[in-house]
Amino acid sequence: xxxxxxxxxxxxxxxxxxxxxxxxxxxxxxxxxxxxxxxxxxxxxxxxxxxxxxxxxxxxxxxxxxxxxxxxxxxxxxxxxxxxxxxxxxxxxxxxxxxxxxxxxxxxxxxxxxxx
Length: 116
Prior knowledge:
There is one protein chain. With about 120 residues, the chain is mainly β. The chain has strands at about 1-5, 10, 15-25, 30-40, 45-50, 55-60, 65-70, 75-80, 90-95, 105, 110-115. Strands 2, 4, 5, 6, 9, 10 and 11 form a seven-stranded mixed β-sheet that branches. A four-stranded antiparallel β-sheet has the order 1-3-8-7, with no helix packed on it. It starts with a strand and ends with a strand.
């Protein structure tokens, strides 16, 4: 199983970025997928998860700004990040599992930097 994340970068506050994560090696539609983020000295936190049935979960800090979606035909999930804030700066990780709150598979991180 492999997860390949892309789409990180640098943006000014108020801007937008879209992260993508392509999965291979498993039956994509049978698993929850999600995005976590981590900053130095802090625990990795769930930003947005999307369950097998397509229902989303968001951290309170990103509700109304981030949108997670999945395309089962392309084995890909997306995280549309709008109205980015400096505190969104982090390394973002794609993850997969039977329950996204306890993922068993992680992708490599992609850095998102938001400048004020």
